[in-house]
Design a protein that fits this description.
Largest interface: A-B, 43 and 42 residues
Radius of gyration of chain A: 19 Å
Shape of chain B: globular
Strand order of the largest sheet of chain B: 1-2
Structural class of chain B: mainly alpha
Distance between the termini of chain B: 34 Å
Largest sheet of chain B: 2 strands, antiparallel
Strand content of chain A: under 5%
Helix content of chain B: over 70%
Radius of gyration of chain B: 20 Å
Order of helices and strands of chain A: HHHHEEHHHHHHH
Strand order of the largest sheet of chain A: 1-2
Structural class of chain A: mainly alpha
Helix content of chain A: over 70%
Number of strands of chain A: 2
Number of helices of chain A: 11
Distance between the termini of chain A: 39 Å
Order of helices and strands of chain B: HHHHHEHHHHEHHHH
Oligomer: heterodimer
Chain lengths: 287, 330
């Protein structure tokens, strides 16, 4: 593998890892703060991708589609938290698993009724539809770089929100000790609504920005969900920092696994997970 | 995860009566002259097979408190084992194909169990699911293993013994009774196990694993044994499924199949194996009913699941148990 090729694979794995991070961060935030296991997280990714496809068709602009799609995702997250999830914070994990499994069915069917079962593609916006030449016959698409940039910006925003703002302080306090936080007069219900909507929005945004490089198809949520689980298991549940490290690690192993040892490409990530479990059953960054 | 829900381990009279009546009805069914009997025979066979599968999961979920979201992996692996063991031009002997398939599934469960049993609670759920998905993709991505199209099982296993060909599984009715027999055997075995010292330790682990360890039990070994046994029994169900449908594909090992098993156990009631049977029949019935009703059955199924979780977390048998308890102690 020469240097240009190596660079391309490195950028690809970075881009994949960052995308996984967006998804896993939402999953692990919702678990860490509310104690809810959300199998439907992959469905939000799928809904995001379909929303991007549908809205680009209506608005003719990916940026506008993502903006509007994010608003819809936040509203959906808020509504779900308000109507269903808030009744499940104190229930068994098993009940949460079943609830969110039922939701997967509902989302799949709603998608099928609204948008059918076809596979779709989303055009890369005209401005970003070019590549940076690396050698005579190798080049790197700009859209993927921009994608990584957006993910990094969002990750940074998330970090600042949680560690530097007043709202973030309340979120952390609520995760640490719910009763104490409540008795200090902080509206924990509101906080939960915000966190859940944030998690849903992160998943949907990931689906929207990924839609131009991946096709939009039914069932795209479930494979992503499994990868999120692997990331969360490796990183340590509830740890956003762990999710970042694990997502980048999974991105590297998956991408280079496909290039270097294609025979076991599908398994490489799971081998990584098994190795981590042997070494640390609670994940690398368990809090 | 220890679930504090009341477990109807010792079955009340009313539930025992329901089970007995159910078993008699199942045994009498092929004797009745019905239109479309073949179709119903097949449907009931499938429900019985799924009941065995659900019971195997209940050993983990209801008895030991280990919620596996990847149990279908062992179900599917045994089905694939039958598919690959059966030669292209002749049936294979049941008497070694069934043990071999179940042992294969049990061995896979032992290996995967070594990794997953070290984890707890929600971690366990995620890790079992991830490992099952690894198995799923192993078969899905490999053309040599049938890929996404799956593999045909050309012949049902041959059940002749020492030249006596009295049992012919190609016959639908015979297969039905064979499945019923296995259902009863697995149920009796698991009930027996539940009240054995091994079963009591598993129940103890569900309630408080730390205490069990403090008392001196090596809980890792017990959990691993339960995981392996559950995998092997799921293998029995998967073997029957492959023999009946004559076809295996990766979907058998998929995430939906695993979640369905959990749903069946929950719907019927956890921890006593009777609930798993009732739940499997009820769940399959509801699914068939919705599928006949509309092509948007997934919407109804999803809503049904959500409603069950919200309103009946103790399952159908829990409901019956409550009613009969009220009558017995007025």
């Amino acid at each position: 593998m020469d240097f240009a090729n190596f660079l391309i694979q490195l950028l690809n794995s970075l881009q994949y890892g960052l995308l996984l991070f967006m998804l896993a961060a939402g999953l692990t935030l919702i678990f860490g703060i509310m104690g809810v296991v959300n199998l439907a997280h992959g469905s939000f990714y799928m809904l995001g991708a379909y929303l991007a496809w549908f809205l680009v068709g209506q608005l003719d602009s990916l940026v506008l589609a993502i903006a509007l799609g994010t608003v819809i995702a936040v509203a959906l997250g808020w509504l779900l938290e308000w109507s269903l999830f808030r009744h499940f914070y104190h229930r068994d994990h098993l009940d949460q698993v079943l609830l969110t499994f039922g939701l997967i069915y509902i989302f799949e069917e709603v998608r099928s009724i609204l948008w059918g079962d076809d596979v779709h593609a989303v055009q890369v916006p005209e401005v970003l539809n070019w590549s940076i030449p690396l050698t005579d016959n190798l080049s790197y698409p700009v859209y993927r770089l921009v994608m990584s940039g957006v993910c990094i910006a969002l990750a940074l925003g998330l970090y600042l929100l949680i560690s530097k703002t007043r709202l973030g302080m309340k979120i952390r306090a609520g995760a640490f000790n719910r009763e104490m936080t409540e008795s200090l007069g902080i509206n924990i219900r509101l906080i939960h609504g915000v966190v859940f909507a944030l998690g849903v929005a992160l998943a949907a945004i990931a689906g929207m920005i990924a839609s131009p490089i991946a096709s939009v198809y039914p069932g795209m949520g479930s494979s992503v969900l499994i990868m999120c689980f692997v990331v969360v298991v490796i990183g340590g549940i509830g740890s956003v920092r762990g999710a970042l490290v694990a997502a980048l690690l999974v991105g590297l192993v998956d991408t280079f696994g496909k290039v270097l040892v294609p025979q076991i490409a599908g398994m490489a990530v799971y081998m990584l997970m098994a190795a981590v479990l042997l070494y640390k059953p609670e994940g690398l960054f368990k809090q | 995860m220890s679930s504090p829900k009341a477990q109807l381990e010792k079955l009340p009279r009313s539930i025992q009566a329901i089970l007995l009546l159910g078993a008699i009805a199942l045994a009498a069914f092929p004797l009745m002259p019905l239109t479309g009997a073949d179709f119903y025979l097949q449907m009931l066979s499938q429900m019985m097979i799924l009941a065995i599968f659900a019971m195997s999961l209940d050993l983990l979920q209801g008895v030991s408190g280990l919620v596996s979201l990847g149990h279908a992996a062992y179900f599917g692996l045994a089905g694939y084992a039958l598919a690959f063991l059966t030669p292209a031009d002749a049936p294979i002997s049941l008497w070694w194909a069934l043990p071999a398939s179940a042992l294969g599934a049990g061995l896979a469960a032992l290996i995967i169990g070594f990794f997953v049993v070290r984890t707890h609670g929600i971690y366990f759920i995620m890790v079992t699911m991830a490992f099952a998905q690894m198995v799923f993709f192993l078969f899905f991505d490999n053309k040599a293993l049938g890929g996404s199209d799956g593999v045909y099982v050309n012949f049902r296993p041959d059940a002749s013994l020492f030249g006596w060909a009295g049992i012919n599984l190609e016959n639908k009715t015979t297969f039905y009774y064979f499945t019923l027999l296995l259902l009863v055997l697995v149920y009796a075995f698991l009930r027996r196990l539940l009240f054995s010292p091994f079963g009591r330790v598993l129940a103890g682990i569900r309630v408080n694993e730390h205490r069990m360890r403090a008392v001196g039990y090596g809980t890792f070994g017990y959990k691993l044994a339960a995981f392996t046994l559950a995998g092997a029994l799921a293998g029995v169900a998967g073997f029957l499924w492959a023999a009946q449908t004559g076809y295996v594909n990766p979907e058998l090992m998929g995430f939906h199949m695993s979640a369905h098993a959990i749903m069946m156990v929950i719907l019927g009631g956890m921890g006593n194996f009777a609930g798993a049977i009732v739940g499997a029949f009820a769940f399959e019935y509801v699914m068939h009913f919705f599928k006949d009703l509309t092509k948007h059955w997934q919407l109804l199924m999803g809503s049904f699941i959500v409603l069950v979780v919200v309103f009946a977390p103790r399952g159908l048998l829990g409901l019956v148990g409550q009613l009969s308890k009220k009558r017995e102690t007025p």
